[in-house]
Automatic annotation (TrEMBL):
Matching PANTHER family: CELL DIVISION PROTEIN ZAPA
Gene3D superfamilies tied to this protein: 6.10.250.790
The organism's place on the tree of life at top rank: Bacteria
Subunit structure: Homodimer. Interacts with FtsZ.
This protein's UniProt keywords: Cell cycle, Cell division, Cytoplasm, Septation
Organism: Anoxybacteroides amylolyticum
Cell division keyword on record: yes
Function of the molecule: Activator of cell division through the inhibition of FtsZ GTPase activity, therefore promoting FtsZ assembly into bundles of protofilaments necessary for the formation of the division Z ring. It is recruited early at mid-cell but it is not essential for cell division.
Keyword match Cell division: yes
Compartments it resides in: Cytoplasm
GO BP terms in the entry: division septum assembly; FtsZ-dependent cytokinesis; septin ring assembly
Record protein name field: Cell division protein ZapA
InterPro entries, alphabetized: Bac_CellDiv_Activator, Cell_div_ZapA-like, Cell_div_ZapA-like_sf, Cell_div_ZapA_firmicutes
Cellular component GO terms held in the UniProt record: cell division site; cell septum; cytosol
Amino acid sequence: MGDQQKTRITVDIYGQQYAIVGTESSSHIRLVASIVDDKMREISAKNPTLDVTKLAVLTAVNFVHEYIKLKEEHDRLLQQTKKDE
């Protein structure tokens, strides 16, 4: 990462400002923040009594669950592609 240009951007997630530093574009960082914000608001609407910490953890659990499902599907498709070759 030493030679890559770093982007620093302030985003709003669930009413809090966060300074994010990364090598991705500003638009990518904003998109990620927006998706996290949307998911937190979605979960909060269904569970209005959750405090912010529990809401953040539940949001993280949801994203990891989705990631694992997508990774399993990706691996399955790779295996299927190899069988078809």
